[in-house]
Automatic annotation (TrEMBL), chain A:
One of its GO terms (cellular component) is plasma membrane. The keyword Cell membrane applies. Belongs to the binding-protein-dependent transport system permease family. The lineage of its organism: Bacteria, Pseudomonadati, Pseudomonadota, Alphaproteobacteria, Rhodobacterales. The keyword Cell inner membrane does not apply. It is found in: Cell membrane. The chain crosses the membrane at residues 12-35, 171-195, 207-228, 240-259, 288-309, 344-365. It comes from the Bacteria. This is Maltose ABC transporter membrane protein /trehalose ABC transporter membrane protein /sucrose ABC transporter membrane protein. InterPro entries: MetI-like, MetI-like_sf. Its main location: membrane. Residues 172-365 form the ABC transmembrane type-1 domain. It is a multi-pass membrane protein. Pfam families: BPD_transp_1 (PF00528).
Automatic annotation (TrEMBL), chain B:
GO terms for biological process: transmembrane transport. Its main location: membrane. The keyword Membrane applies. It is found in: Cell membrane. This is Maltose ABC transporter membrane protein /trehalose ABC transporter membrane protein /sucrose ABC transporter membrane protein. It comes from Rhodovulum kholense. It comes from the Bacteria. Pfam families: BPD_transp_1. InterPro entries: MetI-like, MetI-like_sf, UgpAE/MalFG_permease. One of its GO terms (cellular component) is plasma membrane. Residues 107-317 form the ABC transmembrane type-1 domain.
Amino acid sequence: MKSHAGAKSGLSWAVHLTVAALVVLWLVPTVGLLVSSFRDRDQISASGWWEAPLPVEQTYRVRTDPDAAVERHGRVVLSGNVFDSEDSAGSGTVTGFGVTGRAPAEFAPGATADLRGGGRLTVAADGRFSAEADAPFGRRGPTIYFEAETPPKVTLDNYRMVLGADGMDRAFINTLTVTVPATVIPILIAAFAAYALAWMEFPGRGLLIAAVVGLLVVPLQLALVPLLRLHQAVGIGQSFMGIWFAHTGFGLPLAVYLLRNYMAGLPRDIIESAKVDGATDFQVFTRIVLPLSFPALASFAIFQFLWTWNDLLVAKVFLPAASETKVMTVKIADDLLGSRGGDWGILAAAAFISMAVPLVVFFALQRYLVRGLLAGSVK
Amino acid sequence: MSPLLQGLVTILIGVGGCVGYFYGANLMLDRVIFPARGRDPGANISRANAVRPWLFMAPAMAALGLYLVYPVVGSFWRSLFNRDGGSFIGLGNYTDLAADPAFRTALFNNLLWVLVVPAASTFLGLIAAQLTDRIRWGNIAKSMIFMPMAISFVGASLIWKFVYANEADIGLINAIRAGLGFQDPIDVIQIPFWNNFFLMAILIWIQTGFAMVILSAALRGIPDETIEAAILDGANPFQIFFRVMVPQITGTIVVVWTTITILVLKVFDIVYTMTGGNFGTQILPSYMMSYMFKDDGRATAVAFVIMLIVLPVMVWNIVQARKEMR
């Protein structure tokens, strides 16, 4: 395959470049999210994530404490470091300072500025400042405005915040609670049905297979209202029990279809010789077909896992809207986007928490996923 | 009981119940109902074997019937009633829909989505498949392009919110615009009409990997002789790709196209997360969600409209499947 189409070197460079561009285009948005989730919230709004390794220039405003002033040579001197204040970043380099909010970087570090209330102020590049006046400062000390470059800050604060105060930890557990039974239970139910459709002779088999193919594309939207009413009528209501049932039902067509296709492709000789040796259908299924179908079982399991983990629609309808039962997707879409819409670091951390497990599963088991996709659509 | 524990118990009960059912029912059939003894053991064995497939299929058929077949009928029936389900209004919900400009916007936007997303994903996927198959690090590249498949639509929407953000220090698009010298940042999500395409880009980003994986397998299945013959005849690489290879995988292209089309008709997450259906970006699934829990009659009517749009694809799929089985 590699050698065909007369590989000319110029064209091959074009291929490398095009693929590289495509990969970059595909990765950049995700990388942006990942980088942002580790950045300090003030730095996020001060510079783009692509500038994350560079120092950030930000404007600060600190209020000095007049009680710290001392008298020296008949003048009142107030000195300290602007970075000691809670309002500034802790460390950095002052690139300019000022005495009014309108011109926060009017003076270069080391220069002397006249305070509006009388006296003079100077701020050094390392943040040390001193204000001198003939009379004591009033009840409030002079306010210093300055612009500083702070070194890039890598922090886990966003994760701490979103897992703690925003309740993403609970949502994570809820997602896990929804996902695991909803992945495990359909497999077994589907495997028996798939075996019957693949290897047992009975009237109406072809019709049933066709029906499964048809059900593959039924829009979920149809199921929402009637089934919710049904669940309420039988007393399940909106609950984990209800969503497990719903995911099981919705996952079954793909499960039966994938598994049947795979099982029907198993070599006829093995199954027939087992039957000649006196094995019953039940034994053929459990001892031969089920172990041989492991790759198909794995690929369906991955599909169903990703689908239930990432689902928003079914969770919104079949789980109660209370915050203790919200799964991560609902939490992000309904709570965080509303209450923390402008808090990009928090949003990025939340999104990444919800994506971490599927990404691990994806990269670890990609082979099975690809195999399942191919079995599901090419045949 | 904590939900997680409840989940574990459910797995045990569910798996145990299934195993118990299949094993027990199978045993019942062979030992009690049609035992292989008595006057005519042979007849009993064949009777048992006639029943067994249905026994194996019963749980799956029950679940499929209840969760997918019944809702088609149930939804249609519900859509004939008014908001609280109290009175029968015939096709009233449908005529209301037809008169609602928001519904027409949603239908029009959905049409755009159906035209653009499958076409773009399939085309990009085809290009990616062909190019990555020809280079040594192609598998890594494939992995990266395929990766968005693992991300939820909500997660993907957040990722793209960072690209589209209305501030030059957060959104890449506005950063690039600022770099080119434009003064004011724009909110691409609020540009009428074109904002739809920015939302579609998210789904294209997700689905291209899917198309690429399947089309790549199909491209590898093309017999080498056809390509060698084309080379001998002096065809250039573009001619080989578009005139020799693509025609041989038309079937797979159609499958990929229709699969993505079906998906487009179901996905409400992206619009819901990005705009909530505002700024003229409503599509049918999100339009339906805006009536869910408020007016079930209207919601089921929208769902049924979606079903009607999917119906031709469904029929075509069934016809194809039957053809293959023969």
